[in-house]
Amino acid sequence: MEKFVAIDNGIEEKEVTIIRAQNGFGSGIYTACIKGQPIKYQKIGTIFMREGNNPFKNN
């Protein structure tokens, strides 16, 4: 998870701290801290995405 968040935000993995992780069957919600700012991510199956973003939605 930390590696994905680091790549998504253009920072090093050591700068990411996972504050909260709620795992369910095949899904989860994670809160990461990056430079003092909390950012939420969702996991659906094997896909991680920033909460509120839908990679399958057409713009």
Keywords:
59 residues; mainly beta; four-stranded antiparallel beta sheet; 1 helix; 4 strands; 14% helix
Which whole number gives the mean pLDDT? Answer: 86
Number of alpha- plus pi-helical segments: 1
Rg, Å, rounded: 11 Å
Beginning-to-end CA distance, first to last residue? 27 Å
Strand content: over 45%
Q: How many β-strand stretches? A: 4
Assembly type: single chain
Binned, the helix content reads 10-25%
Unreliable stretches: none
The backbone outline, from C-alpha atoms, is globular
Describe this structure in words.
The mean pLDDT is 86. Strand 3 and strand 4 (47-50) form a beta hairpin. The protein is globular, with a radius of gyration of 11 Å. The protein starts with a helix and ends in a 9-residue tail after the last strand. By secondary structure, it is mainly β. The chain contains one helix and four strands; from the N terminus they run H-E-E-E-E. It has a four-stranded antiparallel beta sheet with strand order 1-2-3-4, with helices on one face.
